[in-house]
Amino acid sequence: MAKKHILIIPGDGIGPEVTTWGKAVLEQIAFQYGHEFTFDTAMMGHAAIEATGNPLPDETLEKAKASDAILFGAVGHAKYDNDPSLKIRPEQGLLKIRKELGLYANLRPILLFDELLDASSLKPEILKGTDILFFRELTGDVYFGEKKRSEDRNTASDLMIYHRYEVERIARKAYEAARLRRHKLCSVDKANVLESSRLWRETVQEIAKEYPDVETEHMFIDNAAMQLVKNPKKFDVVLTANLFGDILTDEASQIAGSMGMLASASIGDGTGFFEPIHGSAHDIAGKNIANPLASILSVALMLEIGFGLKEEAKAVTQAVEQTLKKGYRTSDIANTKDDVTKVLGTEQMGQKLLDHLQQAVSI
Ligand SMILES: NC(=O)c1ccc[n+]([C@@H]2O[C@H](COP(=O)([O-])OP(=O)(O)OC[C@H]3O[C@@H](n4cnc5c(N)ncnc54)[C@H](O)[C@@H]3O)[C@@H](O)[C@H]2O)c1
């Protein structure tokens, strides 16, 4: 029996609509498997600015640090998108909480459901069976290295920098995840050219010795970008640096087709942070049409990576699969071939998912 305290940060726009269903799934999993999950809620983003003047109130940060995991919706509001000069902004809350919680690894699973093969721009026969988990390093690389511009403004440089400890800690996280999956890890770098990549590869090779049950492959970034669209099925866990991860995960998100289906997690040594990859989607907020499945798949990630509850995570993923198999869709993943009577709103889709979860677990 697992005992976990989970903080829900609904945020703005469709955030509250989708996290409601993520929380409902957690409650049902706790009930079905005999776990004790307790919950608290806190504000962040535009909602928090309106209420307190601060995108990340101290109370939210305290609650976050005291929890075992955080389920987040999204932050953002049209007001800020249209006025970049506004000094206090919703995304500051998100950046600050990531920093305060020491989240150094961003995980993005690319899980493709057979029923949605048509939603991608790649051929179904190439995509079928794709199931990748990306680990992108978040604290190093050109993002944080020294940036320079010459006095005449005609020359510029960004320092690509990594420290051994940064590579070690994310590599261990990725190997631990590979152990809960298909025991394969592909580390992506550019070690034929970059010194920081040579340090990356050398360090991953050392860490690999601690995980002899995981098969390790090293691949250059250019090859990885090509293999990802040529044969995505070959990948299980992909471990890579900040810049390469930024590019590869965006490329890979297109494999799955829809924003409303993709979950992500940011983890460090403390509390993990689980969220859909989409934003607050204010164009559809309050209309009961947002797809709640990305939030629900974020819960699956919380169960698997955050709590090590592999069977429970699988039950959630299978419930999503069953719901899609029965033909149920939200409008973002529906196409002309689908039965219009099975195109559901957020609430109806959330409820269908819960029904399937209950059936799957009771079989
Ligand atoms: N992590 C975050 O909190 C985060 C991430 C990205 C963007 N944002 C913020 O969100 C706001 C909107 O940004 P955007 O429009 O560029 O990105 P977005 O992800 O919110 O929306 C992009 C498009 O996808 C659709 N969409 C997104 N999620 C969906 C879902 N679950 N179901 C159905 N359709 C969905 C939207 O309707 C929109 O047409 C901005 O204020 C931005 O700053 C926040």
Automatic annotation (TrEMBL):
Residues the entry annotates as binding substrate: R98, R108, R136, D222
Co-factor requirement: Mg(2+); Mn(2+)
SUPFAM superfamilies reported in the protein's UniProt record: Isocitrate/Isopropylmalate dehydrogenase-like
Cofactor: binding details: Binds 1 Mg(2+) or Mn(2+) ion per subunit.
Domain Isopropylmalate dehydrogenase-like intervals: 5-353
Keyword entries, A-Z: Amino-acid biosynthesis, Branched-chain amino acid biosynthesis, Cytoplasm, Leucine biosynthesis, Magnesium, Manganese, Metal-binding, NAD, Oxidoreductase
Subcellular location: Cytoplasm
Superkingdom per UniProt: Bacteria
Record site feature (Important for catalysis), residues: Y143, K190
Record pathway: Amino-acid biosynthesis; L-leucine biosynthesis; L-leucine from 3-methyl-2-oxobutanoate: step 3/4
Coiled coil: none
Catalytic function, reaction form: (2R,3S)-3-isopropylmalate + NAD(+) = 4-methyl-2-oxopentanoate + CO2 + NADH
GO biological processes: L-leucine biosynthetic process
Main location: cytoplasm
One GO cellular component term noted in the UniProt record for this chain: cytosol
Binding-site residues, Mg(2+): D222, D246, D250
Molecular function, one GO term: magnesium ion binding
The protein's Enzyme Commission number: 1.1.1.85
UniProt xrefs under NCBIfam families: leuB (TIGR00169)
Family: Belongs to the isocitrate and isopropylmalate dehydrogenases family. LeuB type 1 subfamily.
Role, per record: Catalyzes the oxidation of 3-carboxy-2-hydroxy-4-methylpentanoate (3-isopropylmalate) to 3-carboxy-4-methyl-2-oxopentanoate. The product decarboxylates to 4-methyl-2 oxopentanoate.
Quaternary state and interactors: Homodimer.
Protein name (database record): 3-isopropylmalate dehydrogenase
Organism expressing this protein natively: Mucilaginibacter arboris
Gene of this entry: leuB
